[in-house]
Amino acid sequence: NRQIVLANRPKGMPDKETFHFVEQDIKELEEGEVLHRTLYVSVDPYMRGRMQDAESYIEPFQVGKVIEGGSIGEVIESKSEKFQQGDIVIGMFGWQTYYVAKEKEIRKIDPSLAPISTHLGILGMTGLTAYFGLLDIGKPKEGETVVVSGAAGAVGSVVGQIAKIKGARVVGIAGSEDKISFLKDQLQFDEAVNYKTAADLKEAIGQACPNGVDVYFDNVGGKVSDAVLANLNRYARIPVCGAISAYNLESVDVGPRVQTTLIKKSALMQGFTVGDFSNQFQEGAMQLGKWLQEGNLKYRETIHDGFENIPSAFLDLFKGNNTGKLLVKVADR
Ligand code: NDP
Asked: If you count Cβ atoms within 10 Å of the first and of the last residue's Cβ in the chain, which end, N or C, has fewer?
């Protein structure tokens, strides 16, 4: 069994030295346990936070221990009555090629619904993040303007499309011309702004949002968010989902203070994690699946091949080298 462990806690941007490849024996199966072979591994920005020894909504990774995270596998041996050889399962086994799971650690997925990889993306954690953050906190109404940052990524691309389904005018912010075309031409966003090339981002967002911003779904924080917040309408809602621009900073990010903006605009800003909605996951996944089958939701995945490429795939998230969900395919079914 090959594993990738955390070699040390990175300062600033992680690099290949942050990770260490090790070999481990596979333990004997006990009653109620299932051995599976990993097929897909998810790499996610939140994993950067878990590399720090800091209090958070989730435990930090331990140095020398395997990096945990969402993955999909195929059952190859089972001592459980609930799982059979050949079942496709999802769980948090992380960056390793095999894993012996207890029944409660895994859940079966139906491979006939959609490609199995979608359960780590649009039908899984990132899709649900978009769904609940936008609908429960953003609450977009027909005709309102919704702005989403990190718009061409796994969460952002779903946020914009759900906002369109709800009848909003949607403006995406992303970091390359390819992503801008993807948002406008493939996902039918009304406008898209390249934050890397805009001469004056606040003005560019103002132009893309002639009626102001009613909902800002924030995936990135930092200067991009400063520019959006300068264009808010009264009673705007701001689901704060992520702050990827700050994840690799070595000192605290300080920007314009937002309190007076929020007061003047009677705006609501609310942080959340997808886990806040765990009781409603089934409902959310069913709705996302329905929209997908009806053709109302599209998705793209950036899939890297090979277990050895997991660390570089993870680092690509911070370089913007992905459109849609970034995954690593570790083995064929
Ligand atoms: P993405 O697929 O969006 O990948 C990350 C993207 O972030 C990159 O492609 C890049 O796109 C952009 N990016 C990277 N660095 C910067 C930067 N310095 N400034 C602005 N943009 C940057 O990842 P996810 O969809 O998985 O996650 C998006 C956000 O949502 C993250 O902040 C993540 O932590 C958060 N999240 C929160 C959850 C929650 O429960 N609250 C759950 C899941 C994700 P570009 O080319 O446009 O720069």
From this structure: C
